[in-house]
Amino acid sequence: MFKNIQKQLLLKYPLLWNTKFIPMLIIGVLLNLIYFFIGYADGTLDFTKYYDSDFDFTFFSFSALISLIILILWLVSYFKNNSFKRFYTKSKNALFFEWIQIVIIILLLSMFYFPFEFGKQLHKRNYISEEIAKERCETISSAEFFIDGSFEEAEIDSARSVLNDTNVNGEYKAVERVYLDYVTILGKKYSPYALINRNVAEFSLFSREQDSLRELKIRKFLATNNTFEVKKLMRNYFKILKEHKLLTNLTEDKWFTITYNYPEFKKYELINPKSSIVKENYTEPYSKYDYGYAEPDKTYSTYYIEHNILKDNYRQISGAYTSSVFQLEPILVLFYCVFGFSMLIFSFRVTSGKSWLIALVSYGIFNIVIGIISGVLREFLTYPIIVIISFLVVVGLFFSVVIAKKTKSKTMVLLNLIIWLFGGFIPTVYLTYMESYQNRLNAYLENMEYYNDPHYIFLKDNMTTMFCLNIVFIFAGMFFMSRVIRTWKGISEE
């Protein structure tokens, strides 16, 4: 099938034939579909166990190896025939389209993280809808109050506390907070370790403000002795627990009896949020003692609920609805890596192996030299400033030859350097200016006050925007450069 496709492309679309774009496009799409389904399988939740991905490291290592092998095979085939040098007359935009095809091929071979993670996330979402997930996470979060929730911090005794490091009569006083032996909730004083002072469990589906409102609602139930709502909460929680076949040695009535102690809520039994049952492929031993929170000598009762397992699985579902796989920063990193590698391939394609290698060695030596200069001068900005000036000099020399139509063999090394470096020109200028502006502010301001400067804040807040706009510049620059390179090809080598 590939041979027939390539034959038709050779006759009708020689550029696509030369780059092997169609076969590579098919291979790239199929690979990413496979990655998606592997991720979907990895997103399987077993609600009787903690979620643990077995594929992440192995998958990414294997995927990177597969992509590297395919890329090497493609490059061997791609470099066999160079239409730019030998076979076909190039149209004005042919080189630009060739670079676009290189970018797409490399992108398809290197984006395996995104379909894998998206498949995993989609599977977790498919268990229950977002609306039901919110309802259940709210129930599980609230039930933490009556199982093993952490305690809200007691109020600070400001009269006996040292809130900041200070000196008193020449004697250094470190921060030392003394807490009151009570908390005030809804106008009444309670022990800091009273049940009413517990916190709910956090889920990414809810904001901290929503968690605080949920805590307040439960405290109102307890303070007003609203046993109906408390029992309703426990009943709803047990429905979720039983649906997922999780273990407990409690009943709803027993749970209420051993935890609900109106009005002081001092006497209650702690419920262990993990069972002592040994399960297949997972063992979590029963622990009678735990000092995870602030209360002294916390001792669990003999009652347990597999609450931690339930909470972990619903946190996976919660995270699937709130965490986006396609975030701007990692996408930008991927694109810049793809652009960088595509520039290396493209420059090798339009110049020669000898000039490409000379340019690589020259650039390495150049970096070592200016690195030493920067180290001797002990000035961070020396390096980027020399790079910017050197790049402008290289561009000037290259275009002076192209305009004058002099011998092009002397410019092959220069062309390689321009193709490699022009994509990073704007970010280098931007970050150099930002650093120099900060240094100027530091000369007049103290105690890191430059963080409050409006212009510095603008530069910092728009850094991501700059990297996004630079992508537009890269495409526009490559469109222009491809035409210049076509003109440059017509100059004699000697």
Automatic annotation (TrEMBL):
UniProt key word Transmembrane helix: yes
Residue ranges crossing the lipid bilayer per the database entry: 21-38, 58-76, 96-116, 331-350, 357-377, 383-404, 413-433, 463-481
Superkingdom of origin organism: Bacteria
Keywords: Membrane, Transmembrane, Transmembrane helix
The keyword Nuclease is annotated on this UniProt entry: no
Protein name: ABC transporter permease
Organism: Flavobacterium bernardetii
